[in-house]
Amino acid sequence: MHGIVLLGLVAGSGTCLGALLIILRGRLQAGRFSFLLGLAAGIMTAVIAFDLVPSSLRYGSPVAALTGFCGGIGMMAVLDCLLNSLSPATFAGKSYLKMGYLIAAGIALHDFPEGMAIAAGFAAAEKLGPLLVFAIGLHNIPEGMAAAAPLGYGGLGAWRILAINAAISAVTPLGAFAGFLLTEKSRALISPLLAFAAGTMTYIVIRELAPESRRNSRLHAYTGMLAGIFFIIALDFIA
Fold it and tell me: Which domain holds residue 101?
């Protein structure tokens, strides 16, 4: 259990890394940022298609997998609508600070089911857990950058920005702990939890990562996506 929670913390620390990049270097060049987002999208897509969904079907019925998958998408859609309804209408002055806090809250809400996904991955297969840690950790880097940038524009100091992102990072291991308890209580929950993770990650890729990656540079975005997909395929082949 302690190992899974620790790895959940490793995955969550990607948020702090993203915030640190903003503090030290400011915004990344458009092409590099598009590549990073595309890479995260490609890795997540490959993990969903080649690991999460097949493992969910292997551990349970198609009905359980479909229920979990739809539940993951539905939960993310509700969170998305909630956060959009709370978004500030303007982005000048203190509203930057408000936007940063809202983004941070959204990331924290996203991170809990991602932590549960890590626990389910380790319960399902030895190699799936580390893959999810890597994919979620990489995905958290641009999320940390997205939270840090408006907080910095709003006048918040570097240490307070890092403290906020550290608090966000702690949500992932909490989710991993909850996922561990659930899978230990009933192995039948492994299948819907894996599918739930696939649903949440699918929503993130389609609604956030893929469109945002193409905004600045389609070439860098697609290059990153292909690199991420082939990276996971290579890992699966080696394993």
Answer: 2-22+53-238
